[in-house]
Amino acid sequence: MNDWKKICRVQDIPALGARRIARPGEIDVAVFRGAGDRVFALLDRCPHKGGPLSQGIVFGESVACPLHNWTIELASGAARAPDQGCTTRFSVRVEADEVFLDLVELKTLGIGVSKVVAGPAAAGVMPIGAATAEAERPQV
User: Fold this and answer.
1) Domains, the chain
2) H helices of 1-58, where?
3) pLDDT tens digit sequence for 63-91
4) Would you call the peptide bond into 138 cis, given omega within 30 degrees of 0 as the criterion?
5) Are 28 and 44 in contact (CB under 8 A)?
């Protein structure tokens, strides 16, 4: 049985963009609004080097990782060939323009995965404004 948690409204997610859902002590979940206002949710970590998919460019029903331009399919979390790998996908339900995620999945999937493998954060450098952005994200 699913225990659904209201996350936001579809309109709260930028068109062809993403919104991050904070999971204290764990990797965030990225909720994407793809073509035709379809909504998807993935672990906010590229399977290649851990890039933040929520900061990538969304096109159609895919996102390009901002670090190395890998294309990740939003419906499955799988990298598009010739790249290989997959990020964790979360179940999404949309009712009356409200977006819900499975609370059990939010508490269990992608737990204990290393946060960043590449980029400034891997070296312990916090990007400018990161502390502010952290406080503004909805939390599970």
Assistant:
1) 4-136 (2.102.10.10)
2) none
3) 999 999 999 999 999 999 999 999 999 99
4) no
5) yes
